[in-house]
Amino acid sequence: MDFEVALLGPPSPSSPSRPRPAPLVELVLELQEELRAYLFLFMEVTCLGQAAPSCSRLRNGLWADAAFWKAYAGVCLKEHWREANAAVLRERFRVWLFHLEGDWEKDFAEVIEQDSRSEFGANFLQLLQDARYIASGLMPTDRGPRVDEFAKLACSLLKQYNPKQLDERWAAESLLSKVEQRNDVFADDQVSQVASAFAESLERSMLEQHLEGADEAHWTEPLPEGAWQTWELEEEDQSEEESFPGMHTDFGDWSPPAAAEESETDQLMAR
């Protein structure tokens, strides 16, 4: 069943141009704001974003309802909980959800630095995923020095990660895709810089693989003819130089000296 038909219901026979409210829409809007918020808390935030603009009644009962956002956002509103404007409450919820409070770009840079100083090195998979998450939550109102600094951080991550790790490479591609989609936030030169950083990482990986393959080919090349004989001669020469004098002397023709004649004392003792 089509999503729009499920929400709005089939057209009324008496007025074909105006669809009658679907039972699901009536059920949602009849709930109190707190219960309505709890219902959407069991779903992803994207479900709320897709349901709110589907019809005017849901838009008024969800997107433009300040009481709904107070119950849905809860404690993250902090000092804004008395606000009666739904747009202000939605903005506060977005800032909290995507960690865009205060100097958020400096906080992210500090996270990268601390992770780089860890014992096992930086976890680029997590850092790239965090960067993509932040990029998905930015709005055109955020454009400025902070977005510029964030783009530089994204380029730095893309230059340092290991493209040979498939999970890190997938996260890098996902970050690049998100930046390219958010042309309402990132300028053309920023998108080009991020794309160039990703392309350089792939080129570096290909070059390293080529060098590793060349080294392996060098060690696996067949030896030229006569190489083993040359090595044997070199080993023999080296062994002769390091041996002691006389070690290779032939004693086969050596005979003991002639026995000396017996002295008179020996003859007397023999008697």
From TrEMBL:
Taxonomic lineage: Eukaryota, Sar, Alveolata, Dinophyceae, Suessiales
Name assigned to this protein: Uncharacterized protein
Acidic residues bias: start-end ranges: 232-243
Domain of life: Eukaryota
Region (Disordered): 209-271
Basic and acidic residues: bias regions: 209-219
